[in-house]
Target: Glutamate--cysteine ligase
Amino acid sequence: MGLLYLGTPLSWDETKQYADHVREHGIIQFLHTWDRLKDRCGDELLWGDEVEYMVVTFDDETKNAKLSLRQTEILAKLSKVVNDLTDDDTPALMTVPTFHPEYGRYMLESTPGSPYTGSIPDLLSVETNMRYRRTLARKHLKSNEIPFTFTSFPRLGTPGVFTEPHFSPDNAKSSHSLFLPEEITNPHARFPTLTANIRSRRRSKVAINLPIFIDERTPRPFVDPTIPWQRSIYPEDPEAKNGAALIDHIYMDAMGFGMGCCCLQLTFQSCNVDEARRMYDALIPVGPIMLALTAASPVWRGYLADVDCRWNVIAGSVDDRTPGERGLKPSKDNVVIPKSRYDSVDLYISNDWINKPEYNDERVPYNEAIFKRLRDHGLDEPLAKHISHLFIRDPLVVFSETIHQDDDSSNDHFENIQSTNWQTLRFKPPPPNSEIGWRVEFRSMEVQMTDFENAAFAVFIVLLSRAILAFNLNFYIPISKVDANMSRAQRRDAARSGKFYFRKSVLPPGRTTPIASTPSSSGSCSPVEWSKDAPAKEKKLRNCFPPVPRPPYVEDGPIEDEYEEMTVEEIFVGKGSKFPGLLGLVEAYIDTLDVGVGDRLQISKYLDLVRRRATGSLQTPATWIRNFVRSHPSYKFDSAVSQEINYDLLVAVDEIERGVRRAPEMLPEDYGPSNGYHSGSTP
Ligand code: ADP
Ligand code: MG
Ligand code: MG
Ligand code: MG
Ligand code: MG
Ligand code: MG
Model:
């Protein structure tokens, strides 16, 4: 998240009255940026990751692993530590990291202190950088606290004690949750206000129902005995018994269940706005596939679920649509909005010729007045659609002190809407008064338990992003098929048993092997003739690859012939003569780089992890966690994940991360402190 402004948040009734004001000025602010920077060109690749942690406190006497609610103190300490670090304490090639607050009062987020460049040493420093951040965090926690990169906390919202200190949900004044106390939420005004205003706008609590995993002795029908069905403290308490909580499902009723999850995100700077738009589009179909491959969250509110991923939980947890907008009460005053403001991308936005209008095959509501305004200002249709689609949403938090802004120098109102559209990809315009260029953020992945894995996925995606540009890859499939993939990706065991729509032929017309185009020379955007011959080897990962011009004749068959269903294995290792697989493309891209033998070996370790996940020779974290639970001696095959199982699970995950316990089903056999995978830090 960006900077947290300290101020006085307006109530929902007040906020509503400023919705048009925020949208109006948000667009003015965007257009200022557009006018200033639409022709900006030549930005080099800079990129970075965001890793989220949950801090867990171990009580060895009661065998309980609880969420530590000390975020405020921990962040204060870490920022002091980070400020005091001298260059001597910081490993070579690294600037001191940054720690940020997140929604959960038990969460931390870390980013590298400054973005990575495209240099190979930077690429190979990612894992060390992540590990350094983890070690720093770990070193400054209490001796019984550990920062976990774990996607969903298995016992969040269960009866009993799951936080340290313990609080009752009876005082959940923002969410009115039956399960989560007020104190689960970051106390900064933004977060309780978001929570309360989503509930107010929606006119009920959020309602998330995940199918429960039906095990041998799961009671049928499953009517959850841990829901306080009869509570009557808040007006929404009867919702559960009046239909919000579904039979055979795990019911959740608060923002914290989703925004309290951890993920791994990556941001890439582009050469110019057009390149950012090509990159954004190409990564859209990759989003669900990476979600399936990184699946890490099979346990929710104390039960095994029949899904492996967090995505639909977060989508549901911030779904502020009114009943009319959700299509429940059709009325002519209400536009039906098909998706939550947290969901997969709705529109491709590139103005490259390979983006055919037919790929945008879903009904996407947009703000017509804003669309017209942007078009009148000279924006092309795809980008105007994208922005005016984001701007159908209301601002959720408005601070009284910042209602009126200088639209020349601020982008707060634009960011208010933009940053509460949480999609699988985010197209990020340059902030005012900064050197930062046009960026794209990749947001679908679940965070992995070890920095080796997190680095592997970061390295894989940055290399894939370069392959996309260098080889002019075409990944387009209809956006409705991407959405179908999104729901398939979350199913149990999707990485092994799922099938996904993917494009059959991804190379430019006439090509049978990937050939890199020549990047424009550094810092310039002068067009470079697209050469048929492979250019000389590059010493670093680059931006500024010109797109392939449209050939005079392109065969345009029916779109339905362009894609087919593939397994994850086929998507990564290839299918048929026309599709070398994402790994084949990445390997071909690495061949265009001047990488030494040792460096290539390290990159191979990362790509091998991706390959072994895709072929099923290594389990996803979700499968591993599910198997751990089901083989725990105290598991009763009734889908319930007890306090004791949770404790043993988290002890095991910590030991695996430190390399003192083997998990050859999930990690390479040689993962461990002695093999350079781990810094060997012990608590
Ligand atoms: P947000 O929460 O808005 O997504 P963060 O500030 O938490 O953003 O993370 C942004 C990431 O982008 C960090 O990893 C940072 O290193 C990286 N980054 C910073 N500047 C640039 C840039 N100019 N281009 C690309 N990435 C950048
Ligand atoms: Mg975050
Ligand atoms: Mg962030
Ligand atoms: Mg953010
Ligand atoms: Mg988050
Ligand atoms: Mg982010």
In short: The first strand starts at residue 46 and ends at 59.
